[in-house]
Amino acid sequence: xxxxxxxxxxxxxxxxxxxxxxxxxxxxxxxxxxxxxxxxxxxxxxxxxxxxxxxxxxxxxxxxxxxxxxxxxxxxxxxxxxxxxxxxxxxxxxxxxxxxxxxxxxxxxxxxxxxxxxxxxxxxxxxxxxxxxxxxxxxxxxxxxxxxxxxxxxxxxxxxxxxxxxxxxxxxxxxxxxxxxxxxxxxxxxxxxxxxxxxxxxxxxxxxxxxxxxxxxxxxxxxxxxxxxxxxxxxxxxxxxxxxxxxxxxxxxxxxxxxxxxxxxxxxxxx
Length: 271
Description:
Layout: H1 12-21, E1 25-29, H2 33-41, E2 46-49, H3 53-56, H4 68-80, E3 86-90, H5 100-112, E4 117-121, H6 127-135, E5 140-145, H7 151-154, H8 164-180, E6 184-188, H9 192-201, E7 206-210, E8 218-221, H10 223-227, H11 248-260
Parallel strand pairs: 1-2, 1-8, 2-3, 3-4, 4-5, 5-6, 6-7, 7-8
């Protein structure tokens, strides 16, 4: 199926409709025009220019070295390859934490580069910044749970939501971010039960899981994890979609089909 046959752009309103109708939202990272073109041809709804490029493109051990210049460049490259999908770009570490005004300045740079929404990491402490951006016309995707920009503070890449205090904190953060106006919320490496509860409690905000179970409104993966091109060990929450296929395009289509049909993530991909 060629999803570009109906080339109407995917909008935030359309993502809200999908959430309301129970249609799973498929998100996948891309960092250049070529992969962006392939992904939306395969039916990916949302393309994320993630600061994960620090790991999979630049070869760093974390996302912390990624700069605004890197994000602007890769957002511009990715946007040029797109016709239909919705484009989100990450605000990298140090580009939004200082003040809401700093966040607005750098969000504007990403929107000018072609993004339709910005993503930022952090819980309640970022609610004021989210509200500031949304009130000034910048759509925001929030991100809680395992937040890679805080990997040193978290003590490593650890599953979140395994203690009573952690569960209550995650639920509190989700409420605060939705009340501040976040339209999407990425839940990363959060226990399935917590992600299910947060998803059930949202009113308008759509939840996007990565290692957070199948009950979220959608799923996101890093492209390189999906196609098996990455250094080190494949994360538990990722699946080998290349097995049994002959091309990258077939692997991406398999991911889209499995998310839409709620076959992915399976129990073995959850915590």
